[in-house]
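Notebook entry, cofactor series.
This is the third protein in the set we're modelling with a bound small molecule. For this one the ligand is zinc ion. I'm keeping the input format identical across the series so the outputs can be compared line by line later. Sequence and SMILES below, as received.
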Amino acid sequence: MKKLKKIIILPSALFLLLLVFIIPKHLNASGEKSTNDATITESTADPGNATAADNATTAGYTTASDYTTASDTTSTDDTTTAGSNLSVHFLDVGQGDSTLIQCGDATMLIDTADDTMGTAIQNYLTKRGIDQLDYLILTHPDADHIGAAPVIITKFAIDNVFMSDFQKDNRTYQKLRDALDYRQITPVTPSVGSVYPLGDAEIIILAPNKTYDDPNNASIALAINHGDNTFLFTGDAGEEAEDDMMANGYELSADVYHAGHHGSRTSSSRAFLERVAPASTVISCAEGNSYGHPHAEPLNNFRSMGIAVYRTDEQGTIVATSDRQLITWNTAPSDSWIAGEPQGSSPSSITPPDDTPVPLVVEGVSYVLNVSSMKFHRADCDYLPTANRQDSTEDRESILQAGYTPCQRCDP
Ligand SMILES: [Zn+2]
Ligand SMILES: [Zn+2]
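Returned structure with ligand:
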């Protein structure tokens, strides 16, 4: 009897899934030319997507991956689309976050780094032939995440802007609001459990699960599923927000985890890491940043759990590509295991947020070396190390011969 029931339920469930997920996806694609306003309303008010995942806490996610399998089998029937690769570009934007995701023609940018990075991000996108974004996600309103958003919003046509509901009363936030107004874009705070298409990948919103006093905890968190592969982004969410994500019962396991809060000890709690159980993690931070990111505690956890670590401060822009089964990287993992904390200083001495390191130019010095990461900089680089710094009067050749690699930003 039980078997019989399953035989009937399974095909009809698959059919319903087709209705719920695949059909709205096609509608979206054909409605692409509509105005920003219209598209935003369409995807938020998309009842199919939202309800399917909302209805059942854990089941929501299971349904979502079933959908992936369903579309998998349709696309492997070949003829038209054989499924596109998904590429995730963790941009080297100094102390901040900005990640570009491309899946076929679909594009998404998560965060925009600080206001010095607008042109750099714009150029990166333009070089890749991107003039339009399907999604811009601003995880939370800190300057190292939204600073360059006005540039991106002004230069690119954007279908959907997702923002945390946390509001700030400062110039950076006001400039973002002005840019949105100028473009007549109404940002949306997506509800937890909603599912959005990104090419043949899907985005599942996992946070914020409530209102918080701290902007970091109010970060939008999301998983991107692409075939067998999952990427997890939690913005700067701290332990409290991580606990709330775990309590909500959604599947959190991921192959690639974008380390929360630039590898700060306030995120990536051991319990959360055990739930996510990633094979790899990517840390976005600047070399010699004043916060001491990444901190030793999460680094030690990554190491003891056998998680491969990639770091933009050491390796520049990091690109992970999923072909639905395997993930390939543009570089080998970092094996430095060097924390950014200045030795012997207490955490309380760390400079408060929104403070950018002041570059130091010393007379007669040709290059500045970082003796731990083995990178070298021009003396006027904006990203000079504060720890492990050594000023050099040697010429470029000798420094290269000593095994140093040039900083990607100042290109010495
Ligand atoms: Zn941040
Ligand atoms: Zn933050």
